[in-house]
Amino acid sequence: MIPEAREVHLSRKDRKVLEACCRSPVTLQRDLKRARIVLLAADGRSTRSIAKEVGVQPRIVSLWRHRYADHGLEGLQDKPRPGKQPIYTKTTDKRILKLLDKPPPQGFARWTGPLLAEALGDVDVQYVWRFLRSHKIDLVARKSWCKSNDPNFTAKAADVVGLYVAPPAKAIVLCVDEKPSIQALERAQGYLKLPNGRALTGQSHDYKRHGTTTLFAALEVATGKIIATHSKRRRRVEFLDFMNSVTATFPNRKLHVILDNLNTHKKNEDWLKAHPNVQFHFTPTSASWLNQVEVWFSILQGQSLSGTSFTSLKQLQEHIDTYVNAYNDRAEPFVWTKKKVRQRRFKGRRITQL
């Protein structure tokens, strides 16, 4: 049974809105039909005739006549429909964040998605991953920081960075350090063909050790070139012998040498008196990463030493020397971009020492 038809009275403003809706090519079909129903009803048409012209059931025409008569244009909009209640809410998100503030279960180094889901008990692991991605929380990535108790941290760091950013005129700035105990390991290497036809390159787990060498290196900041020598040990005498070879490479030049706080690098006043053109600059305590030669040691490890095999200590040393020569042929200085040095305390930060 069709309800009694309601009279529809259109204001000029509403009529313009509905007519524009009917003319627009981007109007949705449902909105177009509702607008036509109201316009035809305002012209005095019956419910059945409107239904036949618009192509809907008479009850649909009656619905929108009543909706417009009661609520105006707002009545032609869909009412909010109750959807399915979400399983996980903001309370769940807060529980995940609260759990991340706690240490992981004993025996584990960090939280993982499955560990979080297991600890929560009623949260699916897929939701845990979606939440972490939406908040850009990476459980694997790690940041590092420098925690130094050096009271002169700022002054020492500024001194070193100043040599990188604005080196003294007509002076050579060198970064000096040593990479100790580089092992000459002999491993079986080659290609391994699997039963499925794939071929993998790699090396065996077992190895034979042929001794170790200590590499002393000096990085020239202006050019990026390396001066390197090998030694069996890393005592003060070996360090000063290396420095003698470095000063011989740059005769009659003022040398500013950046060093870390190793004992053999300090208390060399007698040697410095004999070499007045050399000045030592020390990085702050626990901040040897300020020494650019550490970056080069990382490059050496990645490009030359990782995954290699040596049958003798001499072969290892020759291998490193060959790499140094090749590196110097294409050497470029490192670009130091950080100019400001700040010293902040860890008070109030969420840092724990185990």
Mind explaining what this structure looks like?
With 354 residues, the chain is α/β, with parallel strands linked by helices. Helices cover 40% and strands 18% of the residues. Strands 3-2-1-4-5 form a 5-stranded mixed β-sheet. Helix 2 packs antiparallel against helix 3 and helix 2 packs across helix 4. The chain is elongated. The relative contact order is 0.09.
Order of helices and strands: HHHHHHHHEEEHEHEHH
By DSSP, the count of extended strands is 5
Proportion of beta-strand residues:
15-25%
**Uncertain spans:** 350-354
Distance between the termini: 78 Å
Number of helices: 12
Secondary structural class: alpha/beta
Helix content: 25-40%
Give the oligomer, counting copies of the same chain as homo and different chains as hetero.
single chain
Which sequence of strands runs across the widest sheet? 3-2-1-4-5
Q: State the major sheet.
A: 5 strands, mixed
Summarize the structure.
This protein has 354 residues and is α/β, with parallel strands linked by helices.
Helix/strand layout:
Layout: H1 12-23, H2 29-42, H3 47-54, H4 58-71, H5 90-100, H6 113-120, H7 125-134, H8 153-165, E1 171-193, E2 199-220, E3 226-231, H9 236-249, E4 254-259, H10 269-274, E5 278-282, H11 293-305, H12 313-329
Parallel strand pairs: 1-4, 4-5
Antiparallel strand pairs: 1-2, 2-3
Helix pairs in contact: 1-2, 2-3, 2-4, 3-4, 6-7
Task: Please supply descriptive tags for the structure shown above.
354 residues; alpha/beta; 5-stranded mixed β-sheet; elongated; Homeodomain-like_sf
